[in-house]
Amino acid sequence: MNDRNLICIIAHQLYYLKKIYKELMNMYVRKINNRWYYTIEDKDAQGNRKRHERFGGYTRAEAEKSYRQALAEKDRTGKHFEPSAMSFDDFLQEWLDKYVQNYLKPATMDAYSAAIRNHISPAFGTRKLRDLTTAAFQDWLIGLTSKYTKSTLKVIMSCLRSALRWAVANRRYLLSNPMDNVTLPPCRTLPKSPNIFTPEAIQVIFKKFPQGHPIHMPCVLSYYTGMRLGECLALEWCNVDMTARTIRVVGTAYDHAGPTKILTPKTASSVRVITFGSKLQAELKAQLLWQNTNRFHYGAFYKEGTEHHFVCTMPDGRQMTSNNTKYFNMWCKEDFPGTSFHSFRHTHATMLLEHGFKMDYVSKRLGHSSIYTTANIYDTITDKREKDAVDAMEAFL
Hints:
By secondary structure, the protein is mostly helical. 52% of the residues lie in helices and 10% in strands. The chain folds into three domains: 3-77, no CATH class; 88-169, Orthogonal Bundle (DNA polymerase, domain 1); 199-389, hpI Integrase, Chain A, CATH 1.10.443. The chain is built from 15 helices and eight strands. Strand 1 (28-32) and strand 2 (35-43) form a beta hairpin.
C-alpha cells in the first residue's frame, strides 16, 4: 500500500469519526413519565430531513446507548433503523411457530410454551418489542427469586434469550438483544429435595400393581435402572440383552400432542447402556411370557405393530402412553403425597449414593449431561448417610 492510499484511508476514517462526533454532540434525549426518549435525524426519499423520536429505556444511560446503536446502524446501512412496534405476545407466537416448532425438540417447545403462558406473557405480553429493556427484564427476574426455584428461572431466561436473539439475528426486529446483559439472580427459595419412595412404599406399590398389570413393567424398569418415563415407554426388546443383562437407551416416547413419537433422548449423554441384575432379568422374562400369553389370547385382535416391539405394552399389545400412567400418579398423590412416577428415578439414584456409589457413576447411569446436574439434585445428606458419617467419626474423634 503506497502513502497516497494510506492517506486516503485515514482521511476517510477521520471524516466518519468527525461525523459521528458531531452527531453525538447533538444528541438529544428527554424524559417523559419515567421513560427516556432519544431523537435521531434521517432523510426521506426526496432528501428532506426528518426527526424520529424513539423510546430509549428507563434511564438516561439506556437512552444514550440506544441512540448510539441507532446512529451506528444508520452509518452502516445509510438509513434509520426502525425497531418493531409488534407486541411481544405476537412476536413470541411467531417465534414458536417459525423457529421453536421446526428446530427444537417437542419437550423444549412444551417448556418454553409453559414459561411464556405462565410467566412471560402476563408480565410483558402487551408491550411492544421496541419498548423492551435490559433493566425491565433484570428487575422482573429479581422479583421472581422469592417465588420460584432456580431451575424455573433458568427456563424463563433461556426462553427469553433465545426468542430475542432470533428477533435480532433472523427477523431484524431489534438492533440488540435486551437479554444479553441480564444475569440470573441468586435464588432465595430453598432447593427442593427429590421425593423418593421408602422401602415400605415400594412394597405397597408392587403389591398394588403386580406382574400382569400394565403399569408394573415401567415402574419396575425405572426402579431398577433410573430410566425416565419416556425412555421406559420407548424401550424395545431389540435393545434388551438378556444374556449380558444390559439395556441400550436410544429413544424416548413423546405423546403430549397427537400420536406417540419416538424421539432421540433428552441429551447426547442420555444415549447410554445400563446394566441390570437378576431381579430385573426375572421381571423382563415374566413380561415376555405375559405378552406371549396375551398375543395368543387376543389372536387377530392383538394390536402389536410390525415396526416396533415395545417392552411396555397394554394387554392388547398397544404401546403404553403417558396417559396410561396418569392413574398411577393420582394414586401416589393420595397414598404417598409429593411423589409421582419420576420418584422411581429419584429413589434409584438416592439408593446408589447411600450405598457408596460415586457421583460420576450415578450421573452416567442416569444419563445426565453433567455431574453437576446430578450433584445439584441428589447431593443432599440423607438420614442414612448422616448416620454413617457420625458412626465413622465416632471411630476417630
